[in-house]
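Posting for a labmate who doesn't have an account.
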Amino acid sequence: MSKKTLPPEVRAEDRIVIFQEKAIRRVWHNEQWWFAVADVVETLVDSADVRQYIKKIRSRDPMLDVNWGTICTPLPLLAPDGKMRATNCANTEGIFRIIQSIPSPRAEPFKRWLAKVGYERVQEIENPELASARARELYQSKGYPKAWIEKRLRSIAIRGELTDEWKMRGVQEGKEYSILTAEIAKATFGITPTEHQKLKRLDRIKTGNNLRDHMTDLELIFTMLGEAGTTEIARKKNAQGFINNRTAAREGGTVAGNARKALEAKSGASVVSKKNYLNPPAATSAEIAVTAFIETQAEALAPVPVDKPGTRKRVAVKVKKTVQALQGKKKGRGKQS
């Protein structure tokens, strides 16, 4: 991708990200950010010659060296001399792979984090309920309402069922999935996902905002109806391949679209909303106090960082039970008075 083909929304200031107080150059390529490998390595090592250091880590890690051409892609970045020059870049996955090969104390926190993430992923494969629990905790930490969270998690399950069906019926992941998803959305809401994102003022490039993470309750409900309807229609018609599943997607979306129009006619309000969760509702003072208490207890009971997540979870469970017990006593006193 040349400088001329960069999307106009990628401004000069967006091509730099600050990491550990150092500037990392980046470029938007193939729908994701790619980072200058040399810039990332330089932040993690003490070396007067970063290029030579990169050669050394490649020589120490044969598998990294063999896959270097796959992990890294030369992309145009602004060089110190002010000119655009082809620079080895890697996406987030590639950068993490490179970091694993860096024997530097500064890289250790990343390696421990990657190990933790990998361990949690193995746990989730063995027990899928853990994935839902962690997703719920993540949304709660961001301030999303609990009722909304349950709908969002349900929408994820329905989406997963639909994509499993597509895979089994010969639809190719990637572009074909995107086209079918857009067909459902267009029939459901009357606008494409891209138009929906613009309506909600989401910035895909700068923040990677997921449209569904910014939908209202009703938007989530009709999204689920459109995708669940598509799954059912595909099964009933035994749709095979992209073309037949595209027809099923339009029909499934139309079912949800008709329901949306009926509701709008009765309520007099549009289901499609500009509302987003870019600035989630602030937590109540009580919720902030509980969170602070849990964190301080976790710090006190688990001086070793690795033990803190488990300790935090145990403290949170105890606090929840205590609050519920106190609420029960309060209700009991109210009935006696």
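Reply:
Got it, the structure tokens are right above this. Residues 3-107 form one domain.
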